[in-house]
């Protein structure tokens, strides 16, 4: 069977991209859920018996949902442009609608943040992304978590797992923004 070039906006291709991205996100162990920005290209290889293999090139952006949340990408809001990570995913997925099979054979995603110089040009006052393992961000996360532990109605304390995103903005002085993962401990409040 020969390779077909279906339209990127056809329902079949959109569903193939949706299923591929669902499985890519489920497979990733760290970072944020990737959201489809656009389908760049697609080739379809109909199989002899049933189903098709789709070769997809997808433009993606990251969202505000961490991959550990396991939320579907369609339920996750894209980030503001100044803090967005964007890139492309190449994916090969076999889909057999009759047998209700969607098997992601392989994928490769290349991601990068929006360059700081571009952010400063477009939005000079926006926070600038920084290295999340810097002590100042770990301190900010620890302070934030201490406040959460004090004010929450949870029966146990939570500890810091890691800082996943960090940025800084000068207002009157430095303002630190952190996103972090927490885990429940065995310590009762």
From TrEMBL:
Read off the Pfam families from this record: Cystatin
Does the keyword field hold Repeat?
yes
| Domain Cystatin fetuin-B-type, chain residue ranges per copy | 1-110, 121-189
Highest taxon of the lineage? Eukaryota
- Name its GO BP terms in alphabetical order: binding of sperm to zona pellucida; regulation of macromolecule metabolic process
Where in or outside the cell it occurs: the entry states: Secreted
List the GO molecular function terms: cysteine-type endopeptidase inhibitor activity; metalloendopeptidase inhibitor activity
Q: Which UniProt keywords apply?
A: Disulfide bond, Glycoprotein, Repeat, Secreted, Signal
Q: What is its main location?
A: secreted
Looking at the record, the residues that make up the Cystatin kininogen-type domain are 132-189
Query: What's a single GO CC term here?
Result: extracellular region
PANTHER family tied to this protein? FETUIN (PTHR13814), FETUIN-B (PTHR13814:SF10)
Give the protein's recorded name. FETUB protein
Which organism was this protein described from?
Answer: Turnix velox
What gene is this protein translated from?
A: Fetub
């Amino acid at each position: 069977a020969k390779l077909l070039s279906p339209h990127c906006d056809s329902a079949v291709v959109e569903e193939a991209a949706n299923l591929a991205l669902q499985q890519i996100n489920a497979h990733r162990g760290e970072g944020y859920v990737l959201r489809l920005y656009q389908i760049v290209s697609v080739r379809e290889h109909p199989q002899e018996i049933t189903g098709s293999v789709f070769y997809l090139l997808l433009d993606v952006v990251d969202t505000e949902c961490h991959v550990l949340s396991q939320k579907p990408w369609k339920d996750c809001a894209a980030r503001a442009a100044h803090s967005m990570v964007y890139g492309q995913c190449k994916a090969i997925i076999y889909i057999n609608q009759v047998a209700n099979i969607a098997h992601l054979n392989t994928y490769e995603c290349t991601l990068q943040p929006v360059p700081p110089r571009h952010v400063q040009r477009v939005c000079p006052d926006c926070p600038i992304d920084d290295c999340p393992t810097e002590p100042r961000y770990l301190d900010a996360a620890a302070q934030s978590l201490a406040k959460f532990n004090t004010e929450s109605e949870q029966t146990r304390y939570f500890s810091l797992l890691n800082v996943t995103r960090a940025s800084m903005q000068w207002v009157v002085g430095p303002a630190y923004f952190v996103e972090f993962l927490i885990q429940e401990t065995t310590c009762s409040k």
